[in-house]
Amino acid sequence: MRVAGLTMTVNVQQYEYVTQAGDTAGIVVDILPQNQMPFPEDDGIMVSPGHATSIAIVEVPCRVSAVLILPINSVVTPN
């Protein structure tokens, strides 16, 4: 029994797949931050129909140091 999380039921309509186009049916899951471009063919997880699949994700905190952004024509002189 799940306590929390997202549950999805996906109908892949496998009977409509064209065998000449490929022999794989299913979906590709790619979980990433909102501002990141998805590349499911490289980073995704293939989920086959007819099987229960569980995917766990863990948020890892990271610290970002301050970044100094200067205009292109700026010159920085040491103090």
What would you say this structure looks like, in words?
The chain is low in regular secondary structure. It has one domain (1-79). It is 5% helix and 8% strand. It has one helix spanning 40-43, and strands at residues 27-29, 45-47. The chain has a two-stranded antiparallel ribbon. The chain is elongated, with a radius of gyration of 22 Å. The termini are far apart.
Quickly list its features.
79 residues; little secondary structure; two-stranded antiparallel ribbon
- The strand line-up of the biggest sheet is 1-2
Beta-strand proportion? 5-15%
Rounded radius of gyration (Å): 22 Å
Number of H/I helices: 1
Class derived from helix and strand content:
little secondary structure
Question: Topology of this protein?
Answer:
Blueprint: E1 27-29, H1 40-43, E2 45-47
Antiparallel strand pairs: 1-2
What is shown here, in short?
This protein is low in regular secondary structure and 79 residues long.
